[in-house]
Amino acid sequence: MTERILTARMEAHPADSHTLARYEATGGYTALRKALGEMSPADVAAEVKASNLRGRGGAGFPTGVKWGFLPEDLRPRYLVVNADESEPGTFKDRILLERDPHQLVEGIALASYALDVHHAFVYVRGEYPKPARRLQRAVDEAYEAGYLGTNILGSGFDLEVTIHLGAGAYICGEETALLNSLEGRRGEPRIKPPFPAVAGLYAKPTIVNNVETISTVPWIVAHGGRAYAAIGPERSCGTRLFSLSGHVNRPGDYEIVMGMTWRDLIFDVGGGIPDGKALKAWIPGGASAPWFVPDEHLDTFVTIDDCAAAGSMLGSGAVVVMDETTDVVAAAHRIVKFFAHESCGQCTPCREGTTWMERILWRILHGEGRPADLDLLLDVADNISPGLRWPPAMTTICPLGPSAVSPITSIMRYFRDEVEAKITRGATVG
Amino acid sequence: MADAPDQVSITLDGRVVEVPRGALLIAAAIEAGTYIPHFCWHPRMKPVGMCRMCLVEIDTPRGKMLTTSCTTPVADGMVVETSSPVVKKAQEGVIEFLLINHPLDCPVCDKGGECPLQDQTLAYGPGDGRFVEEKRHYPKPIPISDLVALDRERCILCARCTRFSEEISGDPLIEFVDRGNHVEVNTFPNHPFTSYFSGNTVQICPVGALTARPYRFRARPWDLEAVEAVSTVDSVHSKVSLEASMNEIVRISGVDCDPTNQGWLSDKDRFVYEHLLADDRVVVPLIANGDGFREASWGEAVGLAASRLADLGGAVAGLGGARSTNEDAYVFSRFLRGVVGTPHLDAQLDDGLAPEFAAAVEPRALIDDLDDADAILLWGPDLKEELPVLYLRVRKAATAGAKLVVVHPRRTGLDDVAAHTIRYRPGEGPALLRRLAAGEGDLAEARDALGAGKVVALVGRPGLAEPAELAEAVAAFALTLDDARILPLVRRGNVFGALDMGLAPTLLPGRVSVDDAERRRALAARWGSLPDGVGMGATDILEAAASGRIGALVLLGVDPVRDHPRPDLARRALERAFVVALDLFVTDSTRHADVVLPVAGLGEIQGTVTNLEGRVQKLNRVVPPPGQARPAWSILDDLAAALGSELEADAVEKIFEELATLAPAYEGLTWDRFDWAEGRDGVVVPLEGVTPPLRHVPSDPGLAVVSERPALHLARVLYDDGVLVRHCPSLASLAPEAAAHLHPRDASVLAVREGDRVRLEGVGVVELPVVLDPTLAEGTVYVPFNLAETAALGAVPSVRIDVVREAGS
User: Fold this and answer.
1) d(Cα B657, Cα B636) in Å, to the nearest integer?
2) Contacting residues of A for B66, CB less than 8 Å apart
3) Using one digit for the tens of pLDDT, what is the confidence trace for B246-262?
4) Contact, A290 vs A390, CB < 8 A?
5) Nearest Cβ partner of B93 from A191, A342, A383?
6) Closest-CA residue in chain B for A192?
7) What is the pLDDT of residues B131-164, one digit of tens each?
8) Rounded to whole angstroms, how far apart are CA atoms B596 and B305?
9) Looking at beta carbons, which residues of chain A come within 8 Å of B92?
10) pLDDT band at B212, cuts 50/70/90?
């Protein structure tokens, strides 16, 4: 709770934490100076590996290991920062872009140096005009100050940074769809393998990392990987940002050390449920994540592995809290509708299945459900995500289709009686 | 583990099989006898794994995983389940998903009965549907071009059509629009799907979403009678299936022949059958009568023709045969030389290449040589316009990495995939060639690209105003390279077969020089006699006929008024001479005939043809000829009989046997060879071990540079006003607007703007609107050949341009 790595500057200097002057005045770019002056690229990569930092975009893959997947002999390599933050409930990268963009720029420079990258891209969600402006301003300032461009800080290292705005598709947050979009193609996920580390942007080896992940790199280089690894639980070390929303007294972004319980996060950090209402369920890691319920999960630890063991994920750190007044069928319908709307339409089960599930839920929600719809709903879901297990199997190209299954399996598992009641008693809304 | 280095062994549903290393699992499984259902995968396109129908379970260290077999290469030791309960459930799920929005209007769908969605629903579907909601609706069908209609409700979004357009034909005019459940295939606003290859998308569509407008509602697939043949629209000879209903050909489909078309056709190949059904097809013998013709009996027409030919002794010449079968061409050759006794005959109209070069150039390339060429030199026609399926093959090779060098007076269809494009003014080709050979200045890189490894040189005439000898010069340059092979480019249907049958003044059947005494003796022994000396070629024949030295012309499927570089000369010749024409139509040429004899066309006869690489393939017959039309060889046999000679041409097999005996390059071929597996893709002649007497190694003819301005670039377009296209209603409207194309700088010197009119004087005078073309070499005017409005211009090195000023402006 006390540790502040990513948000210290914006907390202390809310008026100008985004400016180069403030960034430099608070120790900014010293990590870059240190790396370029004293460290080899391999040294920088080794610190990141030693930090045990796990990707903050959702999958939680160890960053240093991912960096190690780049083939030795292929150049050019690219770094792409995924700032297409669009998972419903997630708004953590936004503050990093808006309020501490130089931290990200320095992270990009450090990561690029470590990876022998000379052109990095930041793909910013199109609905983030202000974050994009702030980031562009920071990049411009960094070029002017010699932190980007040619011969950075006299080291001989060159780096170009290009900022690209998305056009409003959730799927472009999926890394290969993002690469397609960046190349000017339709934002559709690619078949893997090959993975981007081998053939990514323009078919060149590419590392795609989340904003928060890269923003953490300056601290790691400044303080050492071991210092980072020492914070919090061993396999979920360091701090990370959580976006709390829904029925909590204090919604917002919080930087916390992992390892507390969900009870701590919702009731201490978030201040509990408004108006003394009871907690009914929460989504622990973004709309794609299966839900948690108080009876089973309040004392589960907030770590990547504990959440996975409990059948869900920390994902992008978006925690959506639902109190006892929540119509879970309406909530699930809304999420499924989101995924149906955001399906790229490329593969059959996702394109047809998400829409079909949305329409079945709509019927149930509007009193037009039939008893057979419960089995139908689960079977359609099973045809997208065979076995309905976690982590999901899939008949689809990418995990978007199975993401739409999560709210359905969640309500059928924990609230089946409420769904059945909608069918037997008829509509409660509309 | 597999023993052979190019094989791996996999376990397929418990059965261990050896499969080619690197193959995609789906292809390897199907080859090994285990069918895996699929919609989006097509063996000639890159896999995309979108439809998800080909999911299989593969053992991995993390357990069994569902994976698309179309995107997974085989690996040694791979264990695959193609029909496990999990796979079957996934297949049923995909079928159900595809059907929930499919209209199931199969009874009125062209695809019904040959529909992969129908077939796979039967074999792999769940058997019932659980979808109770309203299906997706779109207005339908919408015409996306003059030839193709799109029904978005039937579409299962496999992207075969869009991928074909981008990956294979290189004209991505259709694309996925919108996303999710609203994805649809469509054109871009105001840009119709005007691809020369659009019909392929209809053929590969796994449902009835794309239909061919000429074929819609014409037949049910199970009523179609089909035979294999090749397209004789151009000299590539793409393999086709001719499909007939009620004795009419109603559809032509592409057949995958690996060495030639690989399944693809141009729309001209595909829809050309319409000319066979044209109302004005000549179906009875005609005899000139005043300004027109009257119908006659075969006896009267043949009798009249024979008596006049007999009267004229040897003062007779023959033109044509390049649109006929080898058997027709052979009999024409024998008829003219052996019966009529004339050495004057030509299958080309001075619009092609030197006969020795086209027929016997050494070393000659196969189309397949493109695939492993390091570099390709194209100095000839715009392949997209003249030989569109060859364009696809070159495009494929170039996108796979062969360095393509294109030399042409203006932008060609292949420039997008070319490593180097070189422009020049027609007439200045010889100078450019010397500079290219020396790698001078800006040509150094192109010269370097040609300098290493295997080179295929595709050589022909970029335009008709350039001399045929240019190709010889280019080929001679190519042969100075390390490892080059030549593919001569002449478009017309069976021109290579016709030359091989001796339809050129300098050639005897089988790639034999007319000077070859030994071969002459053998031929004379069989034919009875052989005229002495080298006869005249097309232009000299027409000159002689126009001046009365030649009294009669026998035309076999040839239209000199439209196709000869000097239309005025052709017209005068035909007006003066006694003309016997064997044709399908009364054309601008045959309307000057005294006797028109109706011949049978594609699908109405059997025979063999020979493509530009020397590949002999067989045409089969699926419908009877209309009216009294007959094979040309049979008509010529009657004419010979009326002249007192016996050709014994009473069956096409017998003619083939005769030519295979007498034409050295065809030695060893047998008629039934094409019906068996080894001959189904055709047979390249000469067969191994057979050496034809004539082997033409190109040498530089030392062409003079012509630098008169403005140079004329007169080049063919795919849809012209030629006799075939004009008689195909679906294609005729696709001909481009006739125009004089000028470089903007030349236009500004002339003070003309786009749309202004200019008068061009060549052989004749034409008046055309101006189109600005910045890709054209400066000092050049490009005019599409053989459109109604350009036909009179003729092919001359340079033209005079006058601006037509409106009175008072």
Assistant:
1) 18
2) 386, 393-395
3) 999 999 999 999 999 99
4) yes
5) A383
6) B71
7) 999 999 999 999 999 999 999 999 999 999 999 9
8) 9
9) 383
10) very high
Round to the nearest angstrom and report the end-to-end CA distance of chain A: 43
**Is residue A376 within 8 angstroms of chain B, CB to CB?**
yes
Assess whether pLDDT exceeds 70 at residue B409.
yes
What angle do helix axes A328-342 and A400-414 make, rounded to 10 degrees?
A: 170
Q: Facing residues of B711 across strands?
A: B780, B798
A163-199 pLDDT, tens digit per residue, is 999 999 999 999 999 999 999 999 999 999 999 999 9
Q: Could you give the CA distance from residue B24 to residue B43 in angstroms, rounded to a whole number?
A: 10
A&B contacts, CB < 8 Å? 97
B376-486: what fold?
Answer: Dimethylsulfoxide Reductase; domain 2 (3.40.228)
Q: What is the CATH number of domain B711-804?
A: 2.40.40.20
The first and second tokens of residue B712, run together, are: 């004329």
User: Please, which pLDDT band fits residue B724 given cuts at 50, 70 and 90?
Assistant: very high
- Cβ of B180 and A397 within 8 Å? no
Q: What is the pLDDT of residues B434-453, one digit of tens each?
A: 999 999 999 999 999 998 89
Question: Topology of domain B7-83, per CATH?
Answer: Ubiquitin-like (UB roll) (3.10.20)
Q: Which helix (H) or strand (E) holds A333?
A: helix A328-342
Q: For B339, which DSSP code? A: I
Q: Which of B323, B333, B343 is nearest to B636 (CA)?
A: B333
Longest dimension (CA), chain B: 91
Residues whose CB falls within 8 Å of the CB of residue A192, separated by 6 or more in sequence, listed in order = A176
Question: B437-466 burial, b if ≥16 CB within 10 A, otherwise e?
Answer: beeeeebeebbebbeebbbbbbbbbbbbbb
Taking the C-alpha atoms of residue B512 and residue B506, their distance in angstroms, rounded to an integer, is 9
| Fold (CATH) for B286-352+495-684 | Rossmann fold (3.40.50)
In terms of Cβ atoms closer than 10 Å to its own Cβ (0-12, 13-18, 19+), residue A261 is middle
User: Measured between beta carbons, which residues in chain B are less than 8 angstroms from residue A169?
Assistant: 179
Interchain contact A366–B (C-beta under 8 A): no
Contact A348 B157 (CB under 8 A): yes
Closest CA to A342 of B176, B51, B179, B183: B179
Banded pLDDT at B809 (limits 50, 70, 90) = very low
pLDDT (0 to 100) of residue A1: 42
pLDDT digits (tens, 9 = 90+) for A109-127: 999 999 999 999 999 999 9
Q: Which of A343, A393, A395 sits opposite B93 (nearest CB)?
A: A395
Of A349, A359, A380, the CB nearest to B94: A349
Q: Which residues from A are below 8 Å from B130, CB to CB?
A: 376
pLDDT averaged per 10 residues in sequence order, chain A, 430 residues: 85 97 97 97 97 92 96 97 95 97 98 98 97 98 98 97 96 97 96 95 98 98 96 93 97 95 97 97 97 98 95 95 97 98 97 98 95 97 97 96 98 97 73
Helix (H, G, I), strand (E, B) or coil at B387: coil
Domain range annotation of chain B: 7-83, 286-352+495-684, 376-486, 711-804
* Gap between the Cα atoms of B371 and A370, Å rounded: 59
Q: Show residues of chain B in contact with A86, CB under 8 Å.
A: none
Tell whether A382 is within 8 A of chain B (Cβ): yes
Q: Is B69 on the interface with A (CB under 8 A)?
A: no
Whether the per-residue pLDDT at B506 is higher than 90: the answer is yes
What are the phi and psi torsion angles at A222 (to 5°)? -70, -40
The answer to whether ipTM exceeds 0.85 is: yes
Torsions phi, psi for B665 (to 5 deg)? -65, -20
Chain A hits for B93, CB-CB cut-off 8 Å, are 349, 353, 380, 382-384, 395
